[in-house]
Each structure stands twice: as structure tokens, then as C-alpha cells.
Automatic annotation (TrEMBL):
Annotated GO MF terms: actin binding
Matches recorded under InterPro entries: SCAB, SCAB-Ig, SCAB-PH, SCAB_CC
Entry-linked PANTHER family: STOMATAL CLOSURE-RELATED ACTIN-BINDING PROTEIN 1
Protein source organism: Phoenix dactylifera (Date palm)
Gene3D superfamilies linked to this entry: 2.30.29.140, 2.60.40.2700
Chain ranges of the Stomatal closure-related actin-binding protein coiled-coil domain: 1-100
Top-rank lineage group of the source organism: Eukaryota
Higher taxonomy: Eukaryota, Viridiplantae, Streptophyta, Embryophyta, Tracheophyta
UniProt domain Stomatal closure-related actin-binding protein Ig: residue ranges: 114-211
Protein name per UniProt: Stomatal closure-related actin-binding protein 1-like
Domain Stomatal closure-related actin-binding protein PH: 214-321
Annotated GO biological process: actin filament organization; regulation of stomatal movement
């Protein structure tokens, strides 16, 4: 009985030890799971805190930038200066190529008495000048300027362009210009070395103006109906989506919707300010010659008016210009 009792006690002790070890293992697993959960919670909280800190830093940088407009303006000025330098370099490259082509052409035409002087681009003026002192005076000669398509050599007369000076207008961009001089029974032809180039930045400037309902340009009234205008006071030339208006203060000198009788072109009679001057025929019997503050303003006004007129199915051109001319 004693031996049996000892055996039962040992068995019970062994069972108790197994249960205790099992309970300890279970408790250990619970503690480990609790620690892991706590670590994950802390890691998630740290990640949230980090993200919140990043958002606060970004917001602080944005607020700091808003309170430093001078720095932003400085960066904008630097970008603008780089754009201007790039445009100048591009223009210089184009002019060098044209100068090389011109020199080559002059070498091939050594007997040519006259040549064209001036930049072959929109906003400039081209002058017919003699190459030699012995060349005849052309002040009394008949002169006629023409546009020539770069492809096909189609020749188009430019009405009114009969002087030794001609200022290209938007119609001339992408085309060659040619002048014919009649010296008695002989006819001399001189032409640009290449197509007329657009003015740098003019296209983007006009595109920005197209978003407006109306654009105003300060002008000086030079002639009215062909007669010189004595006053040199400032007038305002309004170019709108449906009409053009000329005013001085509250007084409206002319206002007209786009129509087939309206004409608009650069002044083709020569002169030092021809590149800044515009001819506007409001309707038959009423016309104005206007001088703008710059060549860019004049060309922008013409391009803007022609684009708006085109939207109204009207082609704005000069007197006797071909209706097929592009805008």
C-alpha cells in the first residue's frame, strides 16, 4: 500500500509539473504577444508622428516662402533674364546665318548696284542702299515691293509699297521680300536672303492678349482721311472680339464692327517710323493713320485684329491686298 501510495503521489506530481510548465509557456506566450502588440502600436504612433511632422515642415516652408516674395521675384527675374538671353542668342544665330548667306549671295552678284540694309525680321525696316558711290540715284525711280512664297516662288505685289524703305508686317513672315527698281529701260531686282523672321516673343504675347475680351493700345493720330492731324495727343485704339474703336478720353472718334469694307495694314509709304505706324480704314470715306509706342505694339494690334476678324469670317488686309493672304 505504501509503494502504491508513493507511485500515485509521483504520478500526481508529474502531472502537476506538466500542467505548471504548460501554464508557464502559455503565460510566456501571452506576455510575448503583449510586447509585440505594444511594439507595433508604438511603431505606428511614431510613423503617424513622423508624417504629421513632415506635414508641419512643408506647411512651414510654404508659409515662409509666402512671406519671402522678394526671393520668388528674384527667381522669376532670373528666369526672365535667361529667356531673354536665349532669345537674343537665337536671334544672333539666325542673323549670323543670314549674314553668311548674304555675303555668299553678294559674292555671286558682284555687279549688283544696290542691296537691302536692315534686319530681315518683323519689327524692322529694310532700306535700299547703293553698293557703290557711282550707282544712280533712285529717289526718282519707280520702285515696287513684292512678297514671294518660299515654296513655289509665287509673286504677290504689295500695294502702296513704292518707296526705298519698307517695314515688314505680319503678312510677310515666312516669305521672301523683293524690290524691283526701274532705271530707265533697265530693271534691277534685289531680294532678302531668306524668309522674314517673326519677332521674338510676339506670338506668345498675342496669345495672351487673345484671352482678353478687348485690348487697348496708346496711339498718336497722324492722319485722318489722308490729311495730316495737327494734334499729337494720345488716343486709345481698342481691339475687341467683334469691333475696333478709336477714342480720346470719353470721345469716340470711330467704332465699327468687322466688315468686308474695313482695312488694316502697316503704312507702306516709307518713313523712319513706318515700323510703328498702322493704316486703318474704318469704312469707305473714313480712315486713320496711327503711330504706336513700339513696333511690337503695332504688330500685336494687327495680329490681334486679324485673328478676331477671322473668327467673324472677315479677312483684314490692306488696300488691294489679295484676299488669300494669311493672318
Amino acid at each position: 500500500a505504501s509503494e502504491d501510495a508513493k507511485k500515485v503521489v509521483e504520478e500526481e506530481r508529474a502531472c502537476a509539473r506538466v500542467k505548471i510548465e504548460s501554464a508557464r509557456a502559455a503565460a510566456q506566450r501571452v506576455v510575448q504577444a503583449f510586447h509585440e502588440h505594444e511594439m507595433k502600436t508604438r511603431s505606428t504612433e511614431k510613423q503617424k508622428d513622423f508624417e504629421q511632422l513632415m506635414r508641419e515642415v512643408q506647411e512651414a516652408r510654404r508659409i515662409k516662402m509666402l512671406h519671402q516674395p522678394s526671393r520668388v521675384m528674384h527667381m522669376e527675374h532670373e528666369l526672365q533674364a535667361l529667356r531673354i538671353q536665349y532669345a537674343e542668342k537665337s536671334m544672333s544665330s539666325v542673323q549670323l546665318r543670314k549674314e553668311l548667306a548674304r555675303n555668299k549671295r553678294l559674292e555671286e552678284n558682284m555687279n549688283q548696284l544696290y542691296e537691302l540694309e536692315g534686319l530681315e525680321s518683323l519689327g524692322s525696316s529694310l532700306h535700299i542702299i547703293p553698293r557703290e558711290d557711282t550707282a544712280p540715284d533712285i529717289s526718282t525711280c519707280a520702285i515696287q515691293w513684292y512678297r514671294i512664297q518660299s515654296e513655289g516662288n509665287k509673286k504677290e505685289l504689295i500695294p502702296g509699297a513704292t518707296k526705298s524703305v519698307y517695314s515688314p508686317e505680319p503678312f510677310d513672315v515666312g516669305r521672301l521680300l523683293q524690290a524691283e527698281i526701274v532705271l530707265g529701260a533697265e530693271s534691277i531686282t534685289i531680294a532678302t536672303t531668306g524668309p522674314i523672321d517673326p519677332a521674338a516673343g510676339l506670338g506668345s504675347y498675342v496669345e495672351a492678349l487673345l484671352r482678353k475680351h478687348e485690348t487697348e493700345f496708346n496711339v498718336v493720330l497722324i492722319r485722318m482721311n489722308g490729311e495730316n492731324h495737327a494734334s499729337n495727343s494720345i488716343h486709345v485704339f481698342h481691339v475687341g472680339r467683334l469691333s475696333i474703336k478709336l477714342s480720346k478720353g470719353k470721345t469716340i472718334l470711330a467704332r465699327e464692327f468687322y466688315s468686308s469694307s474695313m482695312q488694316l495694314c502697316g503704312v507702306r509709304g516709307g518713313g523712319n517710323a513706318a515700323a510703328q505706324t498702322l493704316f486703318w480704314q474704318v469704312k469707305k470715306g473714313l480712315s486713320f493713320t496711327l503711330a504706336f509706342q513700339s513696333e511690337r505694339e503695332r504688330n500685336a494690334a494687327m495680329m490681334l485684329a486679324r485673328r478676331f476678324a477671322f473668327d467673324c469670317n472677315i479677312t483684314l488686309a490692306g488696300p488691294d491686298d489679295q484676299a488669300s493672304s494669311g493672318t
